[in-house]
Amino acid sequence: MQAEPKTILNFLATHFDALVFLFEKQNNEGSIHLRTFREFEEEFGHIEQQLFSYKILRKIGEDAEFSGEIYNLFQFVLKEFKPMLPETIEKYNSSISNLFRLIRDGINGDKLILAKRIDELYSEAFSFVESVEKNTLRLLAETRELKSNVTKIDYKQKVEKASFWIDYYIQPLNNILDISHAQSIVNKLLDISNFINIKRLNFHDETIRKQFEKLYFFLIQSNHDLLYQSKILTNELLPLIERIRTESLILTGWIEFLKIPNKVEVPKLLKVLRDNPYSDEMYYHAKDFVMQFQNIEDIIISEELVETDMWIFNKEKYKEDLLNKMPVNDFFEWAIESLNKEYKMAETEKLFSLTSLLFEDDFDKEFDPMNKHVFIQTTQLKLKVPKIKIYKHGIS
Questions:
Q1: Structural domain boundaries of the chain?
Q2: pLDDT at 116 over 90
Q3: In terms of Cα–Cα distance, which of 123, 142, 129, 31 is closest to 82?
């Protein structure tokens, strides 16, 4: 008969220390051996039957082990995570990529299937982020333990262990989290979030749209979390473990030398040198510097003033001239003629000032229906301009 959930939870709380004992045995030995239960009974009493009936433990031959869900619960509570190889985490690249491809290809297909695929993608992304966090926590704990050398291992083993962590765990995991790497899972999640962002705003079905929105905000948060994990790996774990490896190599070499100090010739540790804090040629450099200021010639700078005619655009005058010429079939031809007549030349700056008359509300403008253009010549430029007819209301 299946026990009530509350009964199982109460049992876990009541016998928490006993379960931690079994959890540590499984972690250290791979499973809970038969001989462990004899030791267990003496300390915690006869509760094995309940452990199996509540599905907390399951038989593996003559031994036992925790069921997956309970084991994960104790991993979470005790923060005792086994570091996973990066190849294990890398599997998420394939599963996430495949689900994203199916969602994208079936975006207009069956809504129930699409909704299920979105949920599956959410779960896979969630598991990936959780796996990275667990690995980082475990690697950090292992590295700090190695640094403090709690188990008192010798320096050679310490170097080998530090190299092992870098080569097989830390560096590969760092590559997985490297957003600049085109094939990294983090880069894939960024592409997915860009696609999901569009669909959460314009997808026709409201239920699917809400799923897209939930997935989008999760991916945004995941991006921040993974960036934080990457910083831990780059800024804390790698420098720490590299320091362990370097320090240990130096100490290992020094210890080996002290064992047989006469095997090699030792270089002199102290060498007397005498040097000045300044150059021998300092006197001559200083003399050259001072002498350059002894014969100072007066320098007179005069600015030649260039007389230029100040031209002020008399808008009202040209507006009145244009009004008197109404209707004007070609505005730019009239502008060039007006400037040539008054100044014997058409300067570009003055022409541009005249074009402001085109924006007057008093005048109506009409472009050539054939979209014809004409060329005009100023003193500086040859311009291609449209043919514009100007007339006043009622005058055409």
A1: 1-80, 81-259, 315-392
A2: yes
A3: 142
